[in-house]
Amino acid sequence: MKLGIFGGTFNPIHYGHLINAEFIRSEFALDMIMLVPARRPVHKELDGEVPSRDRYRMARLAVRGVRGYDVSRIEIDRDEPSYTITTVRSLMSLYPGSELFLIIGEDSLAEMDSWREPGRLRELVNLIVMRRPGVDARRAAPAGDGSVAWADNPLIDISSSAIRERIRSGKSVRYMLPDRVLHYALKKGIYAR
Length: 193
Ligand code: ATP
Fold this sequence. Notes:
By secondary structure, the protein is α/β, with parallel strands linked by helices. The protein has helices at 15-27, 52-63, 84-94, 106-109, 118-124, 160-168, 179-187, and strands at residues 2-8, 32-37, 69-71, 99-105, 126-130, 148-150. The chain is 34% helix and 16% strand. Bound molecules: adenosine-5'-triphosphate (ATP). Adenosine-5'-triphosphate binds at residues 8-11, 16-17, 20, 104-105, 107-108, 130, 132, 156, 158-161.
């Protein structure tokens, strides 16, 4: 099985994530993409401390009933911070014999050298880098051996932070994220605080 691993804070998950995930699933003929919400991101302060349970539920709502996707609790059930290498090792034992594809945005690529065991990580996965507007990380070659595939994905200028900001200031975010996700966030008042 060709398994894509797509980690993020997903605070909230949006169409920048989903359109690109689907583009990559199709382009790289992946059998499944596992969305992996981070419990506590290592490199990021979580805006407003949105509980991982809610970010996980929003990711589930986004792909509910959609073939080729699943959402993993692997990081949110763990006590320590979310290190990608630990997640990859867990998924390797859950899906023995699978070929793993780690999907990250260009902005994350630039940070990869500071991740835990980046060289080892690169040996274990095929890296797929998504283009992202306003970021040009093409020269930031990460350390270690291993393949890097640059996706020719559409440039979608949507970010979770822009969505949070817009909700807080009363602006519309319709069509930036799935309706089901938006309704959940609004009903629970997640970004209204
Ligand atoms: P925030 O605005 O809070 O920083 P975000 O929109 O970057 O959040 P994350 O959950 O942190 O969302 O992103 C998870 C992964 O998806 C990261 O590797 C990020 O680079 C990538 N990503 C997010 N949005 C896009 C986008 N619009 N286009 C390409 N990649 C994206």
